[in-house]
Amino acid sequence: MRRFFILAFLFILFFATAHEQKEQFILKPIGMISKVKESTKLILEKEYEPALQGLDKNSHVWVFWWFDRNDSVEKRSILQVHPCGNPENPLTGVFACRSPFRPNLIALSLCRILSVENNVVELEKIDAFDETPILDLKPYIPGYDSADDAVTSKWKR
After folding, report:
1. According to CATH, what is the number of the domain 31-67+105-142?
2. The whole model's pTM is what?
3. pLDDT averaged over consecutive 10-residue blocks of the chain (157 residues)?
4. CA-CA distance, 131 to 36, in Å (whole number)?
5. Domain span(s) for CATH 2.40.30.70 in the chain
6. Pick from 111, 95, 96, 79: which is nearest to 152 by CA?
């Protein structure tokens, strides 16, 4: 009987651990943002250079990046904010606004591409800091990335 309980415990422990692993993801930055004077660049790891082929044919790129300077247990637990940091705006869920406080600190910026050379994408600008980790890039495609009937809240800045 004791052996049965030990086996049952090990079985439960194994499947609980396997279940927990499925709910976690490991994100590796593919590069860093570089902001020096008037220059804004996405500097990707050399191994990702082949993934940039054809990006130069696009005018804009979606840049997924990590709010690395905003990462703490306390900040990740904030689920409602006053948009734009303005207390005159109604309390709003973070999924309904562009707050930097989020359970997962993934940020998204639409950027104009100036050039693509080797493993470097030069941008007009981005709303991220120097040395911010880049998670992914996707081309902006007007037919897919715009909604003719879109509606959004209007907040005071």
Report:
1. 2.40.30.70
2. 0.81
3. 49 52 82 96 98 98 93 92 94 93 93 98 97 97 87 83
4. 10
5. 31-67+105-142
6. 96
